[in-house]
């Protein structure tokens, strides 16, 4: 068989396997690259070249940047803004706000960057509002496709058609000239999704949907009886405790009060210095009147970070968090004594309370003087400390963590530690992408490197942040585009179609080019598709004696209509796992959108850019 026949056969088999959906998509993708080499269509370097493609590097780096925004609570903050703006009940407002945001961001940093940045935000919204992620994620991606036509920087295809216009002697397209067609595309996309999306999209979630931890702090403090009667007091310069050890704090005159911990400065870390200094904080539990009297007598000030007595805000905030742990069977802690207010062996966590069989062991019977509580298998402890300490210390095999502090912080602490650095890194990456100072892959690598170097994430965390399924899938499928170009299969198909409709007038030419571009765009990169179709369209326009500008813009619109398959674009693949989508879910909503893009490309474009 000829290379063209081999390529066509491989494409047909790949599509069947994806539709069948019984084999992992990564296996199918790797088999595709292997088959292209085994049949001699591509060399080994070409068959594996996708893994070194700048687009693959860019996608991988975007996962790290996105995770950095997630870890620092920026995505939780954005999710809260979206929820506040849309309301918890209105599906329409939520979709409109989400689709508008992703479209505007896409215009600046391309489809891949915008979707990667907002994907975790939408997942958080789905969890918090108890909505199915499948109802939100494809609208996010498809709106990004429409938003790619709002500005020149929205897509590499825009740059290609603008350069082609300049080369053809009719001038390129202005930075915002694409918005003349992008706004109708976006408006129609929003209308179709809002009117028909609920029926056309599945009601399901991804297999790895996170739990909702937005009210985690309130749940814990209520369960352990700390919802009220907890006070944080700052040591003033005139306090008699300054210069004295923590053990000197005497509460005999205040029998209703219990000293839980002494925090060092503004941190949530237990005091490590030998003596107390101005600015340190005392954490107390007990009666409100006794707390007020103690504060006055000892020259202490109630902390302004939370309302006095409110355990949720006092114990759980940007600097400190709570974690619940269980003592498992055969734990080395079984038989050891603990008591509320005890500092753990590591020196940076505090035991706030202990429960046995779901009931708290009374603090009055579990003090240091009374010998504390002898731990048994199945006991639960509530620990408090800085978020960093919780992350580091709770990997101890002697305890089982009920909920990961990292996951809790991501959702429940908007704009947490490192949030400003994460936002600054995102803004810098956006500027690099918008101005084109560096290639996208370099901008992504610089941003990912900055996330690690700034301490937002460790190297190990950045490895885990990358969705390797998506990266491998994109890298393994890219050689299919190379094969289409190298064998001449794509060009042969394009030339045949143009010859078929070329004599029927310019409208028929636009229709034919749209169908060709859209079909190829479901299987190979839209950038590769545009590179194949653009010169043919320009030549056809010259033969007919019409301006190539509407032909070029129509091609750009068709290239963005990659709705029917998950392999059409990297962003379609990004949401496949979190949305729990199957191969067949894409075309149900994608087909009406494709028809709208067809109407815009064939009938509206010529009204704006005349033949």
TrEMBL record:
Location within or outside the cell: Membrane
Transmembrane segments: 55-82, 94-127, 175-196, 423-453, 465-485, 497-517, 523-544, 551-569, 589-609
SUPFAM superfamilies, alphabetized: TrkA C-terminal domain-like
Keywords: Membrane, Repeat, Transmembrane, Transmembrane helix, Transport
Domain of life: Bacteria
Membrane topology: Multi-pass membrane protein
Listed GO biological process terms: potassium ion transport
Domain (RCK C-terminal): residue spans on this chain: 218-300
Entry protein name: TrkA-C domain-containing protein
Naturally occurring in which organism (per UniProt): Neomesorhizobium albiziae
């Amino acid at each position: 068989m000829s290379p063209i026949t081999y390529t066509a056969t491989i494409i047909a088999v790949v599509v069947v396997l994806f539709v069948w959906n019984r084999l992992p998509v990564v296996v199918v993708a790797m088999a595709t690259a292997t088959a292209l080499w085994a049949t001699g269509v591509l060399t080994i370097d070409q068959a594996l070249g996708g893994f070194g493609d700048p687009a693959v590097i860019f996608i991988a780096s975007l996962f790290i940047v996105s995770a950095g925004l997630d870890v620092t609570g920026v995505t939780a903050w954005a999710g809260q803004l979206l929820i506040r703006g849309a309301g918890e009940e209105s599906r329409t407002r939520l979709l409109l706000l989400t689709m508008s945001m992703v479209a505007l961001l896409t215009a600046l940093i391309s489809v891949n960057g915008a979707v990667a940045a907002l994907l975790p935000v939408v997942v958080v919204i789905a969890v918090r509002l108890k909505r199915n992620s499948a109802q939100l994620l494809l609208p996010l991606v498809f709106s990004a496709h429409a938003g790619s036509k709002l500005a020149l920087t929205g897509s590499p295809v825009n740059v290609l058609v603008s350069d082609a216009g300049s080369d053809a002697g009719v001038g390129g397209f202005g930075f915002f000239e694409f918005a003349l067609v992008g706004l109708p595309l976006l408006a129609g996309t929003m209308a179709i999704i809002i009117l028909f999306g609920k029926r056309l999209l599945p009601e399901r979630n991804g297999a790895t949907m996170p739990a909702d931890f937005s009210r985690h702090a309130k749940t814990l403090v209520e369960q352990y009886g700390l919802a009220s009667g907890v006070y944080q007091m700052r040591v003033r310069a005139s306090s008699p405790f300054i210069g004295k050890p923590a053990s000197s704090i005497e509460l005999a005159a205040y029998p209703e009060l219990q000293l839980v911990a002494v925090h060092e400065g503004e941190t949530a870390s237990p005091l490590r210095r030998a003596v107390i200094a101005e600015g340190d904080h005392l954490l107390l539990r007990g009666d409100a009147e006794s707390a007020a009297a103690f504060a006055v007598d000892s020259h202490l000030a109630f902390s302004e970070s939370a309302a006095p007595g409110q355990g949720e805000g006092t114990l759980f905030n940007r600097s400190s968090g709570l974690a619940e742990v269980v003592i498992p069977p055969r734990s080395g802690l079984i038989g050891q004594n603990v008591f509320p207010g005890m500092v753990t062996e590591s020196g940076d966590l505090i035991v706030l309370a202990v429960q046995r069989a779901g009931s708290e062991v009374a603090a009055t019977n579990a003090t240091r003087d009374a010998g504390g509580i002898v731990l048994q298998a199945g006991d639960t402890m509530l620990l408090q400390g800085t978020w960093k300490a919780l992350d580091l210390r709770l990997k101890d095999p002697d305890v089982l963590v009920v909920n990961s502090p990292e996951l809790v912080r991501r959702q429940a602490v908007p704009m947490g530690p490192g949030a400003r650095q994460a936002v600054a890194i995102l803004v810098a990456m956006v500027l690099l992408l918008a101005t084109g100072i560096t290639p996208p892959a370099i901008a992504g690598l610089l941003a990912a490197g900055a996330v690690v170097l700034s301490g937002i994430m460790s190297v190990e965390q950045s490895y885990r942040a990358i969705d390797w399924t998506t990266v491998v899938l994109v890298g393994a499928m890219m050689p299919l585009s190379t094969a289409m170009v190298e064998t001449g299969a794509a060009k042969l198909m394009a030339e045949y179609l143009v010859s078929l409709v070329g004599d029927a007038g310019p409208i028929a030419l636009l229709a034919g080019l749209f169908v060709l571009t859209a079909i190829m765009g479901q299987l190979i990169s839209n950038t590769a598709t545009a590179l194949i179709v653009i010169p043919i369209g320009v030549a056809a326009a010259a033969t007919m004696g019409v301006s190539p500008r509407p032909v070029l813009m129509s091609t750009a619109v068709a290239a963005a209509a990659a709705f029917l398959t998950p392999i059409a674009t990297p962003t379609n693949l990004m949401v496949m796992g979190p949305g729990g989508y199957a191969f067949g879910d894409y075309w149900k909503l994608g087909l009406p959108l494709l028809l709208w893009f067809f109407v815009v490309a064939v009938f509206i474009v010529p009204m704006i850019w005349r033949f």
